[in-house]
Design goal:
By secondary structure, this protein is an alpha/beta fold. It contains 53 helices and 32 strands. The strands form nine sheets. It has a six-stranded mixed β-sheet, sandwiched between helices. Strands 23-26-27-20-28-29 form a six-stranded mixed β-sheet, with helices on both faces. A four-stranded antiparallel β-sheet has the order 2-1-4-5, with helices on both faces.
Length: 1463
């Protein structure tokens, strides 16, 4: 094509006063807006009057809204109604602004000016999907010369040489297709630059450069496309919190903060029509709450609360119906005018009504600015380039449509002369006269800014608004104290909002506490209970630590909320943690008090008030420090799996080096240093001193050493008491009290544990210092680290599959491919023709004990060849109706009749029905192509070959313009890695389309898409309908062009009542005439019929403007009679299967066999695990670290009696690794279970394949981890004896790890979220940890709990392994392990005392006067004291297999019972 473009001079039509000043509002009349010839231009003279008329409409709506509230709401707003009887939105803002200026406030008039802005991003080839091979590839590349040259990879311009500006009080609309750079432009304007390689060019804010502007962070905000809120807060709580953080200091005289907040709150919820939802939970995709549209309004309202001078809205009307979107646009228009706000917004599917509210429009394509100027001149500019506009096509659709080769139309005579690529469009723009006018206008604006210096007033006003206790350079409105106070209130509301989790936690604590207390019940104050008493105290610390571990996953929820609100300058991130700490104190105090009161007295610890409160106070400090420690791990980690693996290593270190399992004098020097920085060791020392410091532990005559009688010269004699002592460390020979031998508690802890009895206070102080230290670490981490990538996702691709970005040649190839795929798509579609009817559908749910009717007697049908639109205002029940029709509802009561081809719905209905849901939930570990192929393989009929399925997937990818994304990882928005929000919506549609459903339900398929993507999607859906697929589609904001693709419409009013169901007719005449018959004004030729009908029924943010009861009118209409007659006819008829369709046999719930499902699900899960480096390498690293820590902790164990204990603790801590793996398995299973529920609802596969596959997929990785741990620890500790015993240890250990992971999956399958799992898990760990026979031997376990010992897999593991390890060991006591006593006779030590167990020898060789008693003479003798036998080791191995199989059966059972989501 030619490099030169024919540019017609922009001449205004005769009689029109056209103005080229791009900062003069150009409000175009709708009648002129859709002319294809472009011969008429906007009427600028009447633009102001027209805008005032638009504003007055909203003002009257607002007034009507408050006057029509129900009694409860009128009470709520009575103050507003009385104080502002003639309330109008514009006059309200103007009045408020006058009073504010009169009160000494300064105007914040901050426009923006951008020159030569270029934003560089990372090329796709830099970001490669990581998997388990990545480290090996990296190492291999070190030896490849070709990789030695450092390369940062390719980059590309996300934005290229963009120059524009926008005055204060003006609104700039940014239009562009996905990938055009609209979001990036908005982010850079809001000064969010960290996600990019580089940003060059100048961006100034009222004369302040971007570096200086960082001081005013909250004054330019970016409102993202997705809605991120705390789901358990209500609307009122969410907005009140924002208001508390943004309440200005210089309010009106005598105006209280509370009054100010209430005034603003009432204004905003009234403005956006969410007053009635004030006390409704916000909710999310898993928690029931606001509808999607209502949640979007809340997001917009929260942004307005921030009171920023410059606000960037990114696709903020996503999910809103057309009327609500228009009301929203009117509101920001009025706020911009009256409060001098600078507004920049990108809109998908903006209507002409919305378009005309803006002053200027900037159009981007592939990062290049192809137009910037008045909205009234934009259309004419592109018409003069040679493009043509269809009748009734909105101007925004036309403006972005010219960049889409599949949509744009070229005027006759301009073929081959119009721009094709983004660079062509940019060149044409920079060659235009309007471009030069824009540059001149920008220069004049910058001179005006330099002359007027609005920044001076702005800075002064910012200082006046900020709290007087704030530093002068603070970017926050309120003081740190106020932020903390507001956050404390919000945290309390969040906790109370999830009362079930809170109550469950305390119930679990009480149950576990009684278990602990009963296990160590009423310990005797003698030497036999010394070790147990220390174990009971250590268990008290461990218990509260394990309970605190539940805080770790909570740190990863709400990160995006924190990022958003921090960008709004609502509060410092560290203030959030301070508030959490303060909220912790009463909750932790309750937890510790419950625990301490029960265990202290049931343990049988000293009954002394002082000692009890020291116990409680120390446990309280230890718990607080552990809560802060776990949070620090979360705040310092990018993902849950990374932090979980680090946590497990730390728990192992803390448990091992706390001073209980290994006494301090037994610790090897290479790890003993950790004892001094261990948060467990200080409270343990303090509590041991508190209990043991002034207590004596006795032993009777039978247990003192030596005991019984000895024979000397044939005479039997008794041992003298002065030569006897208790068999315990710290015992002094001959020391007695009340006729009994004893050992002093202080001597015992000194000799056995190396604890000093005079440092109790110091240890308690250090415990609380740890808490303060971890709190400070958390505050610093929150201030420094943002793990959300600034809220911007970036893509990663398979190695070598990354496409070129913003490349002209690539762009041309992509355009040709999409055009070819679209033109051939109809030929490939062959659908089974079906007719689906529903009649008298009513849906009722229970709310606060009362029945709430959400759908009220709805009827209709969908036939082959017809597209039915389901419309209504937000909250009218559109999604609810689709859920009911698609059989997705699992709660509430549904009555009425649904028939397919005149027959009752069969078992295969969900499978043959495609349901495109509003929420885009996808498995992040797959690529786009893999997700589509998975859907095609499992949902298309098995008679279709795999090649044909894959070919169809490629056709869908091409048609939906996702071919270049085929090898991109789906990822997640939370991590910031993956495809964008808009691309997720397209994938949601694609997953249903590749299944070739017989019936298609689509819930907001175009929500979040740009007008071109929406146009393509609706065209594709139209082709599906033409090919014989019946379908119904909810749609919020259809343009005139899109609306014409539909044949019929079902219009719902609030309460799920039918307003109209019937044909739309040619040019919507049938539909509009129905409303005109009942007094509604006529719909003009240029008007959007979708907006017309919503206006007619009073939809929008402020419903109630219509005086007609439309549902009642429908009930009396002749159209209803026709509908009922047609339904009766359809219900009795049976639609014949078309001749081109095969009969696939009787109905089946799933398309494929159970074995095929299992194989495919396993392959998918295996691929997800293969790509999850943080999870898999995490457990490998944890296994290696744990193995090395345990191995070197118990380095080269000797054969002394204490080493027998060390050998058992070595095996016990190896077992501990398996228990820790339970923690890791739970979140992974719960995440996959959420995706399974979605797949199961669409009948991808059954519950059994998922349950079996997710158990099996873990086993190879767990086996490798176990092998790593075994090799790192077994020989290091020196416990190997021979190959047979060593192999038994290995296979039993691997099997035990299988049991632990499957046990974690049992808990996950039973629970519906992580919080409940974290509540149940500690109770389970108590059973495994305490009742295995090590901490408390079987004989000392209370009779009530002995059944737990027999049902504990740890017991069988330990018995089998310990007996194998100790069987052939002969004990040789070191002098330190001997109980010394004097021998006053001439007998040898062995002759003097002959014990039943153990042996006696001289302490020093050749000196028989000093004897030593060793408690064991063999390993077998040691393990027999635990009640174990080597003969059981094979039986124990078999029992462990039984446990593993039982766990698998439990996983399968619980997956089956919880397979359906609550909805």
């Amino acid at each position: 094509m030619s490099d030169d473009y024919e540019l017609k001079e922009l001449q205004p039509p005769e009689g029109a006063n056209c103005n080229y000043n791009i900062n003069t509002p150009q409000y175009e009349n709708n009648n002129n807006n859709n002319n294809t010839s472009g011969n008429e231009s906007p009427n600028i003279l009447n633009s102001e009057n027209q805008f005032n008329q638009v504003a007055n409409e909203l003002e009257n709506d607002s007034k009507q809204f408050f006057s029509n509230q129900d009694p409860e709401m009128s009470v709520e707003h009575s103050n507003v109604a009385q104080n502002e009887q003639d309330f109008k939105l514009r006059s309200y803002f103007e009045h408020s602004q006058r009073i504010a200026l009169g009160n000494g406030q300064k105007p914040k008039k901050m426009g923006i000016s951008i020159r030569n802005l270029t934003v560089v991003g990372k090329g796709a080839d830099i970001s490669v999907i990581s998997d388990l091979s990545t480290p090996f590839v990296t190492i291999f590349n070190l030896f490849k010369p070709s990789t030695w040259k450092k390369s940062s990879g390719s980059t590309f311009d996300i934005l290229h040489d963009v120059t524009l500006f926008n005055r204060d009080a003006e609104m700039l609309l940014v239009l562009g297709r996905p990938g055009a750079g609209c979001s990036t432009l908005l982010r850079v304007i809001s000064n969010q630059r960290n996600s990019y390689v580089s940003v060059s060019g100048d961006v100034t804010y009222g004369g302040i450069n971007s570096d200086e502007w960082k001081k005013f962070k909250g004054e330019s905000i970016y409102t993202p496309e997705e809605d991120t809120h705390h789901p358990t807060l209500t609307v009122r709580e969410t907005l009140n919190f924002a208001l508390k953080c943004k309440t200005i200091h210089n309010r009106l005289p005598d105006e209280k903060k509370k009054t100010f907040r209430k005034k603003i709150y009432d204004l905003l919820v009234g403005m956006f029509g969410i007053s009635k939802q004030s006390d409704t939970l916000v909710g999310n995709e898993f928690i029931r709450g606001l509808s999607g549209g209502e949640r979007k309004r809340l997001t917009i309202t929260e942004a307005m609360v921030s009171s920023a001078s410059i606000t960037c809205y990114d696709c903020s009307t996503r999910g809103l119906d057309a009327a609500s979107a228009l009301d929203y646009a009117k509101s920001i228009r009025i706020m911009s005018d009256t409060l001098h706000k600078t507004t920049i917004a990108s809109f998908y599917q903006a209507s002409d009504s919305i378009f005309n509210l803006f002053n200027n429009v900037a159009i981007l394509e592939k990062g290049r600015l192809i137009y910037f100027g008045p909205v009234g001149l934009a259309k004419q500019y592109f018409l003069d380039l040679g493009f043509d506009c269809e009748a009734r096509k909105s101007t925004p659709d036309f403006l972005t449509g010219v960049t889409n080769p599949q949509e744009r139309k070229v005027r006759p005579g301009f073929e081959g002369r119009v721009p094709e690529t983004s660079s062509d469009f940019e060149k044409a723009w920079k060659s235009s006269d309007l471009y030069q006018i824009m540059l001149q206008q920008q220069l004049e604006y910058e001179k005006k800014i330099e002359l007027e210096q609005p920044s001076a007033n702005f800075i002064e006003q910012i200082r006046n608004e900020n709290s007087k206790t704030n530093p002068k350079k603070s970017i926050y409105t309120t003081s740190y104290f106020t932020q903390v106070r507001a956050l404390i209130a919000r945290n309390s509301q969040i906790i109370w909002g999830d009362r079930f989790a809170l109550i469950s936690k305390y119930i679990s604590i009480i149950v576990q506490t009684f278990v602990y207390a009963s296990l160590f019940y009423n310990m005797k104050p003698d030497v036999t209970g010394l070790f147990n008493r220390g174990g009971a105290i250590y268990a008290a610390i461990l218990f509260n630590a394990f309970v605190s571990a539940g805080e770790l996953p909570l740190m990863f929820y709400g990160r995006r909320i924190l990022q958003k609100q921090h960008s709004y300058a609502m509060y410092r991130p560290s203030a959030l943690h301070v508030a959490m700490v303060i909220t912790d104190i009463p909750l932790t105090a309750i937890q510790v008090s419950i625990f301490s009161i029960i265990v202290y007295f049931m343990y049988g610890l000293q009954v002394d008030a002082g000692k009890f409160f020291i116990f409680l106070f120390t446990i309280f400090g230890s718990t607080l420090s552990m809560v802060a420690f776990f949070r620090a791990l979360g705040n310092l980690s990018p993902s849950l799996y990374v932090s979980q693996n680090i946590l497990n290593v730390f728990i192992l270190l803390m448990f091992t080096y706390g001073g209980y399992s290994i006494p301090k004098n037994k610790m090897h020097p290479w790890f003993s240093w950790y004892f001094w920085i261990n948060p467990f060791s200080f409270p343990y020392k303090a509590l041991m001193v508190n209990e043991f410091g002034d207590m004596n532990f006795t032993c009777n005559d039978q247990t003192a050493i030596p005991n019984g009688n000895y024979t000397s010269n044939g005479i039997t004699m008794s041992y003298q008491d002065k030569y006897r002592a208790c068999p315990s460390a710290g015992a002094i020979q001959g020391e007695m009290v009340n006729g009994e031998f004893y050992v002093s508690g202080s001597n015992y802890i000194d000799a056995a544990l190396s604890f000093k009895s005079d440092d109790r206070t110091l240890n308690i102080i250090i415990t609380f210092l740890w808490w303060i230290f971890f709190v400070i670490i958390n505050m610093i981490a929150l201030e420094l680290f943002d793990w959300t990538s600034g809220g911007m996702p970036h893509k990663v691709y398979k190695r070598g599959k990354a496409p070129k970005i913003n490349d002209d040649e690539e762009e041309r190839q992509q355009n040709a491919m999409v055009e070819n795929a679209t033109s051939k798509m109809k030929d490939t579609l062959k659908m089974r023709e079906s007719c689906f009817t529903w009649n008298h559908i009513r849906y009722t749910v229970q709310l606060n004990g009362k029945d709430l009717l959400l759908l009220n007697d709805v009827e209709g049908w969908i036939k082959p060849g017809q597209m039915t639109a389901l419309m209504g205002s937000s909250g009218a029940g559109k999604t609810t109706l689709l859920d009911v029709l698609a059989k997705r509802k699992t709660m509430g009561t549904v009555t009425g009749k649904c028939l397919l081809n005149g027959k009752e719905l069969n078992i295969d209905f969900e499978r043959i029905t495609g349901y495109v849901e509003q929420m885009d939930v996808h498995n992040p570990g797959l690529t786009v192509r893999e997700a589509l192929r998975f859907s095609a393989k499992l949902r298309q009929e098995p008679t279709v070959s795999l090649e044909d399925k894959y070919e169809y997937v490629e056709q869908v990818l091409e048609m939906m313009e996702m071919k270049h994304l085929g090898d991109a990882l789906i990822g997640s928005l939370e991590t910031g890695i993956g495809i964008s929000v808009e691309e997720r919506k397209r994938l949601t549609i694609g997953i249903e389309l590749v299944a070739k459903p017989h019936i298609l339900f689509l819930d907001e398929p175009t929500s979040g898409l740009d007008s071109q993507s929406s146009y393509n999607i609706v065209k594709f859906i139209r082709k599906l309908a033409d090919a014989g697929m019946p379908l119904v589609c909810t749609i919020h904001q259809p343009s005139s062009v899109l609306f014409e693709y539909f044949d019929r419409i079902l219009l719902l009013a609030k309460g799920g009542k039918t307003v109209y169901y019937g044909d739309i007719g040619e040019k919507s005449k049938t539909l509009t005439s129905y409303f005109q018959r009942y007094g509604v004004r006529a719909c003009t030729e240029s008007e959007n019929p979708a907006e017309y009908i919503l206006e007619a029924i009073g939809a929008g943010t402020n419903p109630g403007v219509s005086t007609i009861d439309w549902p009642e009118v429908w009930k009396q209409s002749p159209e209803l009679q026709d509908v009922q007659a047609e339904l009766a006819s359809l219900e009795t008829a049976t639609v014949q299967i078309s001749s081109n369709d095969q009969d696939h046999g009787p109905p089946r719930e799933f398309a494929t066999s159970i074995w095929y499902q299992t194989w495919e699900v396993y392959k998918r899960l295996n691929l997800i695990w293969w790509r999850d480096m943080s999870y898999v390498y995490g457990i490998f690293t944890q296994a290696a670290a744990s193995g090395l820590i345990i191995g070197f902790t118990f380095w080269n164990l000797d054969l002394s009696s204490s080493d027998m204990n060390q050998r058992v603790f070595f095996i016990f801590e190896i077992l501990f690794l398996g228990i820790l793996y339970i923690f890791i398995a739970i979140p992974q299973f719960l995440i996959q279970k959420a995706y399974f529920k979605k797949d199961y609802a669409s009948k991808f596969y059954s519950w059994c394949p998922f349950a079996i596959s997710i158990v099996i997929v873990e086993l190879p990785f767990v086996a490798v981890a176990g092998t790593i741990c075994f090799f790192c620890s077994f020989w290091t500790a020196g416990i190997n004896y021979n190959g047979e015993y060593d192999f038994y240890f290995y296979i039993t250990f691997i099997l035990f790890l299988f049991i632990c992971v499957s046990l974690g999956q049992v808990v996950s399958a039973f629970c519906f979220n992580v919080m409940l799992a974290q509540t149940i898990l500690p109770l389970l760990l108590v059973m495994l940890f305490l009742f295995c026979g090590v901490l408390v031997p079987y004989e000392q376990i209370p009779n009530f709990w002995k059944f737990v010992y027999h049902a504990n897999p740890c017991r069988y593991f330990l018995e089998g392994v310990v007996t194998s390890v100790l069987k052939n060991i002969s004990v040789e006591c070191s002098n330190d392990d001997l109980t010394n006593f004097s021998n006053p006779t001439n007998l040898t030590c062995k002759e003097y005392f002959k014990p039943t167990n153990g042996y006696v020898r001289a302490v020093n060789l050749g000196d028989e006067s000093k004897c030593g008693y060793c408690v064991f003479k063999s390993g077998e003798e040691y393990y027999k004291t635990l009640g174990w036998s080597y003969e059981n080791h094979l039986k124990n191995y078999g029992i462990l297999w039984a446990f593993f199989i039982f766990n698998i059966l439990m996983v399968v059972s619980f997956v089956y019972l919880t397979k359906k989501p609550n909805r």
